[in-house]
Amino acid sequence: MTEEKTTSGLSAATLKWLLAEIQSWAVEGLIAQEAADKLSERYRSTQAAAGRAKLVYVFGILAALLLGTGVILFFASNWDYIPRYGKLSIVCVALVAAYYGGYSLRYRMGYEIIGEAVIMLGTILFGSGIFLVAQAFHISAHFPNGAMLWMLGIVPILLLTKSKPILAEVTIIFGTWLCLEVASVEFHNYSPLLSRAFIGIFFLGGIVFLIYRMGERANAFVGVLAFNVWLTVFLIALIGDIDLVNGGHVLMIYFTQAIALGALGALHRGGEKRPQFAGVYQYISLAIIGATLFTLTFPEACEELSSGSGVFIVPAFGFVFLLAAVLISLKILGGAGDEKNVSSNEELYIYLALSAFSVLLYLLFSAEGAYVFMGIATNLALFAFIIGLIMVGYRNGLPRLVNFGIFLFALDFITRYFDWCWDLMPESLFFIAGGLILLIGGIALEKQRKKWLLKAKEGGAK
Amino acid sequence: MKFPVKFALAVLLQVACLTGMIGYKYISLITGTVVMLEVPRPKDPRSLFSGDYVIIYYAINNIDLKSIENDIGQCDYDKTVYVTLEQHGEIWAPARVSNNKPGGQAIFIKGKIDSCSDNSASISYGIENYFVPENTGMAMEDQLRSVRKARVSIDAAGQGTIVDIPEK
């Protein structure tokens, strides 16, 4: 499991353990109490400094975002007492001033964090300038091009500064550009969107390269979201009116993608490169898998999603993700014996089982009137998934899997209670019984959860 | 190359991009021929980044292909066409639609086909948005409904830029 890291390189949990260890060394007489106190103070102050740096970072980025948004809104209000060329001059001067100020603060005066935030403000001002020119000259030609120009224009600054917040900004603008492209589709003509989606692959490739190069988890999170935006746009471009297509098949694309993402997370956890991305991928993967399985426990949802026509390209997409998930899983499992990979192995069996289940779901979505069976099958699959998560989390020291499994169990239990018991008893009795079950169940669950978490935190039950 | 120089060049690139856009539209405005176009119906929405604006539907946005000479052939979406304009009193109206840029002294505007039917083509020219100060969209819409025309500058390449909306 990838833990929360401080900027000093130690996780909060590791630091706590280290401080306790140092004191125990002093008690055991291994080192003098004075040395123990000095060592403890050294690590405590490092943590405090790291915490302050993080706070300044957050404040700086928030300040840049607030100022940038303020500037965009100021010019969007288009007050006519500032002439056209006056407004354009203000933006150009402010842009240069922000970059100059940011550069001086970061590279000359040593205020790295605030300097980076001010440079980021410059990148926002550039975007504001593009839309101001469009406003000043009443340009209506293909609005999304403005966002694309914004993204491309700040890439040189990103490459030079290697700023993680600016990388996140570029990624968000990339997603916004694609959304604007979809919004600008007229008369159901999706052919221009396809060329944009193909161009988007190259931009996305560059973004992914930089995310891996810089290694920041927040960037990886935004990157996964941007990939999903691109995937959706590519699907719309290929299929056209996506609402006419079998919804289940479309849902399966995201489901299989989540399985592949989870397997990729496991690969990172076991490997030496970017282990910090493992948690990000796993969280997103579990959220999508859990949400999909939970949705499909309702036969009504299965029926609704089964409507619409089947289009060959949609299952083909899912197949690509499935293939990726299976190949990654088998690659890691094939490397058994490598001690680093052991904690990931059992989790991979869950992904392989889910891959097989997704094939069944594809078939059921294609069959007519299979939604009741699909609902029952998914209920069983969700239950198996929950058991699998708790077991793997418990055995391999992964508390987040245990917690997520328990959350899903509680959610499914409450839903099924409402689903099955609402019509069977009077309302008052329904709520009293529900309250009692929750109370007793909660105590039992909490007791069991504590045991599991304790075992998980101790490093697994193996 | 030293880092400060690279950084300055990256900033300069952005400034050049903005001033280039401004310069291009400025030259188009000052060198273009100003024509008055008929506006049958306006509408006022809002853009997140650029503020309030009025969508202007010009008479030339919808061209009757039966009554106007044309050689556009297959009517593909996003296809570039050139609409030659002729002055009828104060208003300039379409006289010909062509795939090729007209020669000589003809005043023409460049557009892209949005949709086609058997007899007509819907064409946009990139001059359909008129940005206005915040909360004045409705007033501008009323003004446009009353005057039903807009002044547009068209440069030698057929690029249009809105000059203003006349008060009368």
Mean pLDDT of chain B: 85
Distance between the termini of chain B: 59 Å
Query: Helix and strand succession of chain A?
Result: HHHHHHHHHHHHHHHH
Report the major sheet of chain A: none
Shape of chain A: globular
Report strand order across the widest sheet of chain B.
Answer: 5-10-9-7-8-6
How far apart, in Å, are the first and last alpha carbons of chain A?
16 Å
DSSP strand tally of chain A: 0
Strands of chain B, total number: 13
Radius of gyration of chain B: 19 Å
Largest interface by Cβ-Cβ < 8 Å: A-B, 46 and 40 residues
Q: How would you describe this structure to a colleague?
A:
The complex is a heterodimer of chains A (about 450) and B (about 170). Chain A is mainly α and about 450 residues long. Chain A is built from 16 helices and no strands. By secondary structure, chain B is an alpha+beta fold. Chain B is built from 2 helices and 13 strands. Chain B has helices spanning about 5-30, 135-145, and strands at about 35-40, 40-45, 45, 50-55, 60-65, 70, 80-90, 90-100, 105-115, 120-125, 130, 150-155, 160-165. In chain B, a hairpin with a 2-residue loop joins strand 7 and strand 8 (about 90-100). The model of chain B has no long low-confidence stretch (mean pLDDT about 85). At the A-B interface, helix 2, helix 3, helix 4 and helix 5 of A face helix 1, strand 4 and strand 11 of B.
